[in-house]
Amino acid sequence: QVKMNGKNNFMVFNPSMNEIIQRKASLQQDLKQALKNKQLEIYYQPKFDLASNRYDGFEALVRWNHDERGFIPPLEFIRIAEESNLIIELGDWILEESCRFISNYNLSHQSSYSIAVNISTFQLLNDDFEEKVTNVLEETGLDPCLLELEITETMLMNSMSIAYEKLKFLREKNISIALDDFGTGYSSLTYLKSLPITTVKLDKSFIDDIATDKLSLKIVENVIQIAKNIGLKIVVEGVETIDQLEILKDLPCNKIQGYYFSKPVSKLNLTEVLSEYP
Ligand code: C2E
Ligand code: MG
Ligand code: MG
Ligand code: MG
């Protein structure tokens, strides 16, 4: 079978592409159902704070264990949700669920852990996003300074001034804003100066070989220096080895996140994870 793609090119439409399209359509249906039936779960990955030598917060990461297909990677179903309007409903649920959880956890453990929530660009650009965030904080009683929103530059370039206004409003409420996956895009440095962010999260790919490759280390050192010089906090993600950790301890970064400390865990295993660095 041959399918025209609108220009003067054609692509071969083979069975495996057909499978991909069908998987997508069926996952989209199932995701809607899973959201309604509360079959999604939030996992929490601790962030290690170098200054205090302890965990001081978590990133919320959504998990979907499909009835028949098993674990579906979040990047896959988030993309599917973004292709329909489902990302709004899904994002609302993730934000509320994780804020409520951490607020209750802090109350019952007399702690003040922060929570970082990934926000899709579609959510951020939706008209009532700021209002929803303010409502969730009010309803869950979470202190705004314990909430961090993680955004990525994906699809932001055409809506910079809208994004700017929205983020500025949220900053004025004392909510933190992190630029996620920093170092994977093309014009990252521009975003650092043109958005009212508080934090930069260095992508795993940036630091993978800092322990073995001098050039990689030099680049990371300099990027961290730039971020620090303009007053941003730095979180390094994807740290897996003690060698990476030892190197990063000597650089002026603030927090470390990665399998070296802990994988994302279910809320049921959180207290156990926390007992290691109380
Ligand atoms: P992200 O926000 O950059 O999250 C970090 C990802 O790296 C997570 O993958 C985490 O499990 C993984 N990770 C953390 N430390 C390590 C490490 O040391 N080694 C390795 N190999 N991986 C590590 P996950 O949970 O599969 O999520 C992937 C992406 O999916 C996230 O990247 C984020 O873009 C998106 N995502 C996940 N949960 C949500 C959500 O609730 N909402 C939205 N909008 N997106 C989400
Ligand atoms: Mg993130
Ligand atoms: Mg990231
Ligand atoms: Mg990532």
Q: Which H/E pattern describes the elements? A: EEHEEEHHEHHEHEHEHHEHEEH
**SS field, number of helical segments:** 11
Proportion of helical residues: 40-55%
The strand count comes to 12
What class do helices, strands and sheet pairing give? alpha/beta
- Any idea what the radius of gyration is? 20 Å
Q: How big a fraction of the residues is strand?
A: 15-25%
Overall geometry: globular
Can you give the mean pLDDT? 92
The first-to-last residue Cα distance is 61 Å
Largest sheet: 8 strands, mixed, barrel
Bound molecules: ligand C2E, magnesium ion
* Strand line-up of the largest beta sheet: 3-4-6-7-8-9-10-11
In short:
Helix content is 45%, strand content 23%. It is α/β, with parallel strands linked by helices and 278 residues long.
